[in-house]
Structures are given as C-alpha cells and as structure tokens.
Amino acid sequence: QVQLVESGGGSVQAGGSLRLSCAASGDIFRVVTMGWYRQAPGKQRELVASITGGGSTSYADSVKGRFTISSDNAKNTADLQMNSLKPEDTAVYSCNGRIYSSPFSFRDYWGQGTQVTVSS
User: Fold this and answer.
1) Are 81 and 70 in contact (CB under 8 A)?
2) By three-state DSSP, how is residue 109 classified?
3) How confident is the model at residue 55 (pLDDT cuts 50, 70, 90)?
4) How far is the C-alpha of 68 from the C-alpha of 5, rounded, in Å?
5) Which of 48, 43, 30, 26 is nearest to 95 (CA)?
6) Which of 15, 58, 96, 116 has the fewest beta carbons under 10 Å from its own?
7) What average pLDDT does the segment 41-64 reach?
8) 79 within 8 A of 22, measured Cβ to Cβ
9) What local confidence, expressed as pLDDT, does residue 95 receive?
10) Strands 67-72 and 57-59, how do they pair?
C-alpha cells in the first residue's frame, strides 16, 4: 500500500503565500507523477499543478506565474509553493500520486486534503 500525507495549508490574506507539502510512503517502486488538485465549494475538482518523475511540470492557467511545484525524488515528496494568493484560490487542496507499487502495477493515490482559505 501507498500513503500520501499532506501538510501545510491554512488561512492567509490576499497577496500572501502558503506552502503545501506531500509525502508518499509505503510500497513505492516508481513515481510517475505527483500533483496537486483543488476543489472549491460548488465547483469541480481541478488540476492545479503536476510534476513528473523526470521533473517536467504543468500548471493550470489560473496559477501560472504564482504557484511552483517541486519534488524530491529521493524522498518521494512534492511541494506546492503558492504566492500572490487570491480569494479565488480558496479550496480544499489534495495531493495525488500516480505510483507504481510493483514493476507492473500502478494506480492513483490521494491524500486526505487540506484547506486553503484566502481572505480579501
């Protein structure tokens, strides 16, 4: 089994910064991608940022230039640095990992989610 544990999040005023961290542990053979999703009340979950095991990154247009995703392959962690936060960034943020637990088997794993609230 694989577990994803998130930390960070909280409340901040508009223009502020927060950092989210996600650590994967357990039966990890190889990490394909790790990413951060968010879901605001009444809205669908959306991909915020992702990073591959090779370090390629992808961002939602709404966060480009403000958020940065990074990873430590040795530790199986992925961090999301969020700067210039806006009230519309308020959501529950969840870590996702597409992870091989054996050479032939992979699946998506999810963290428990962490609340980010940005006040105006």
Assistant:
1) yes
2) strand
3) very high
4) 19
5) 48
6) 15
7) 96
8) yes
9) 98
10) unpaired
